[in-house]
Amino acid sequence: MRTSLALAAIVFWSLSAVLVTDAQSRRRTEFSDWSAPVNIGAPINTEFDDNVPVLTKDEKTLFFTSTRMPGGEGGEDIWVSHRRNKNSRWEEPVNLGPTINTSFMDRMRSISDDGRIILFQSNRQSGGYGGSDIWAIVRKNPNDDFGWSEPVNLGPVINTQYNEVAAKYLFDERHRNGNLFFSSARPGGFGGPDIYESEITENGFASPLNIVELNTASLESCFWVRKDGREIIFSTNRPNLTGDMNMYDLWVSTRSSVYENWSPPESLGSTINSEGYLDVNPMLASEDRMLYFASSRPNSHGPAGNMDIYLSTRTRLR
User: Please, what sign has the CA dihedral across residues 117, 282, 82, 60?
Assistant: First the structure.
C-alpha cells in the first residue's frame, strides 16, 4: 500500500510539471555545430569514474554518478554539488547517503523540471524485478538535498527481469499529456537495449511502445530528450554488433513536432565522439545550448579508460 501511494505521488507531481506547449513544440529551432568538448575538471572529475551529469533547471546544482571513495556506499553512487551561479566553481560533492545509495549500482538518470523527482537506475536486489530497474525518489522542498523519500520502483509495466537503463519524463504545459522515455533490453526489441515510450495517465503507465525509428540491432542505451520533445541525443554502438562498450558514440535525432516521427539518427561526429572510447550519458542545459556528457577518452584525472564529465556548447541561430 505504501509503495502504491508513493508511486501515485510521483505520477501526480510529474503531471504538475510545466515543460512545453504545442506552439513551442512546433516552433523550429536551429543551432550551430557543437564545440570541442572541455573537461569540467575537479572537484567533479577525479581518478575514479565520474559519470551521468544532470543539472537542475537553474544550473546551480549538479547531480552525478561516481565510484569515488572514501565517502561512497560502494559501487556507483549518486552525488550532488552546488555553485553560487553559472560562472562559479563547483563545490566539493556530497554523497546523497544510504537512503538512496547502496552497495549496488545506483546511477543517476534525470531530474524533473521542478527539481522534485529523480529517476535513477539500480540493480539492487531488494524490491527489484531483476537486472537493473528504474527507480524514483521525490522531495517536497527542491532545495533540500537530503529530503528525498525512500526509493520507489516504477513497477512491472516499466521494469522487467531484463535491464532497464535510462529514463526521463516529458510533459506538456496543460498537464494533460505525459510520457516516460526509457531504454530497456526486454524481449521484442531490435536487439540489446532499445528506447521506449510510455504514456503516463492518472492510472499509471501505459504499455510501452518501441520507438522504432530510433532503434537498431545494435545497442541504444542512455539518452536525453530536449524539453520541447523535438530532439533526442542518445548513445549507441551502431553499426557494431559485438557489444563492445568502447564503440558507444553520441547520436542525434530530431522531429518537427511531438506528433511527428523522429528523423533518421545521425552521429554527432568526431568533434564530440572519440574513436575507441565511450561517449555516453548526454544532458542538455542552458536552453539546449550546452551538452554535458561522460567519456572514457584519455584525461589527466586518472588511469586510461576512467570516466570524466565533459561540456560542449553551441549557438542558437534562430
Answer: negative
Q: Which one, of 51, 54, 64, 60, lies nearest residue 87 by Cα?
A: 60
Record the pTM: 0.89
pLDDT tens digit sequence for 169-198:
987 655 456 899 999 999 999 988 999 999
Alpha-carbon torsion (125, 221, 86, 228), positive or negative:
negative
pLDDT tens-digit series, residues 238-269:
987 767 767 899 999 999 998 999 999 999 99
- Closest Cα partner for 224 from 158, 159, 268? 268
Element (H, E) at 263: none
101: which residues sit within 8 A by CB, 6+ positions away? 72, 73, 77, 78, 95
C-alpha cell of residue 200: 503516463
Architecture of the CATH domain 2-313: 6 Propeller (2.120)
CB 163 within 8 A of CB 105: no
| Cell numbers representing residue 56 in the block | 537542475
Q: Which residue has the higher pLDDT, 6 or 181?
A: 181
More confident residue, 245 or 51: 51
Evaluate if residue 12 carries a pLDDT over 50.
no
Provide the residue ranges of all domains of the chain, joining segments of one domain with +: 2-313
Residues 310, 239, 257, 285: what is their CA dihedral angle, to the nearest 10 degrees? Answer: 0
Nearest Cα to Cα of residue 281 among 133, 166, 124, 111: 166
Q: Considering only CA atoms, which of 97, 103, 152, 96 is closest in space to residue 124? A: 103
CA angle 209, 124, 165 (to 5 degrees): 30
